[in-house]
Specification:
alpha/beta, 9 helices, 10 strands, about 35% helix, globular, binds 2-amino-2-deoxy-6-O-phosphono-alpha-D-glucopyranose
Length: about 260
């Protein structure tokens, strides 16, 4: 796993956007995995800038969202589908239908079938080339809360009270945050060819340290990144504050041959 400590979220955003731009340059029909939450916003802002100023085009690319709330009315501004439309899609040039989210419109067997169909759609697209991830304060990725199987696939999950409280800032109150979600499983996420996790701010420091340097455990879902052959963690100084090997990560990054990229 490579850990990159940056001076500010905008620097991390530009770094990750650069890796996405390089991927699209090599492979215009690349498949991206998109995350929501505030952490990826600097990445999306820089991708929008590159589209505007540097002709970065997503016209042949595809994308799959990590997760979605269950039970929000279609088009709700806090649905993750609406979030991605607002923060990324509306600023770039994805083709119609190129960005997909889990279908949460059904119930019971229909919902189960939609989860299986989502995993099949990702596989059918040739798998995800680069999966962007944030991390929850409890170490969750996507909406895989602590206790999630490290082999899990896309499925229905129940949010913890802590996560609902964290995400209440986007809603009127914690009560308005849906209790249920559909999320790509940890096994689904690990199938992507490159995982890039971004985390900024003190509130993420203990989750980042547990994920990067703690034992691999279902109690810290992001620790599953340790199992992946190509995982990159981009953090600012506050989010890196509890990392024991931060000196080594800085040295490694400073000495990295430029041809290696992320
Ligand atoms: C939600 C999302 C996660 C995200 C997390 C952290 O739970 N499902 O994908 O990583 O929030 O969000 P933020 O980046 O706003 O701290």
């Amino acid at each position: 796993m490579e850990v990159v400590i940056v001076d500010a979220p905008e620097v991390g955003g530009a770094l990750v956007a650069g890796a996405i731009a390089a991927l699209i340059d090599r492979q215009p029909a690349a498949t991206l995995g998109l995350a929501t939450g505030s952490s990826p916003l600097p990445v999306y802002a820089d991708l929008a800038r590159r589209h505007r100023e540097e002709e970065l085009s997503f016209a042949r690319a595809r994308a799959f969202l990590l997760d979605e709330y269950v039970g929000l009315p279609a088009g709700h501004p806090q649905s993750y589908r609406a979030f991605i439309a607002r923060e990324l899609e509306s600023h770039v040039d994805f083709g119609d239908g190129a960005v997909q989210a889990p279908d949460v419109s059904g119930d019971g067997p229909d919902l189960l079938a939609a989860c299986a169909a989502y995993d099949a759609a990702i596989a059918g697209a040739g798998g995800v080339d680069l999966q962007l991830l944030g991390i929850g304060g409890d170490g969750h990725i996507g909406f895989n809360e602590p206790g999630s199987s490290l082999g899990s696939r896309t499925r229905l999950k129940t949010l913890t009270e802590d996560t609902r409280r964290d995400n209440a800032r986007f809603f009127g109150s914690p009560d308005e945050v849906p209790r249920h979600v559909v999320t790509q499983g940890i096994g689904t996420i690990l199938d992507a060819r490159h995982l890039v996790l971004v985390a900024f701010g003190t509130a993420k420091a203990s989750a980042v340290a547990a994920a990067v340097e703690g034992p691999v455990s279902a109690m810290v879902p992001a620790s599953a990144l340790q199992l992946h052959p190509h995982a990159t963690v981009v953090v600012d100084e506050p989010a890196a504050a509890l990392l024991e090997l931060s000196g080594y990560y800085r040295e490694t990054w400073a000495a990295k041959p430029p041809w290696q990229g992320l």
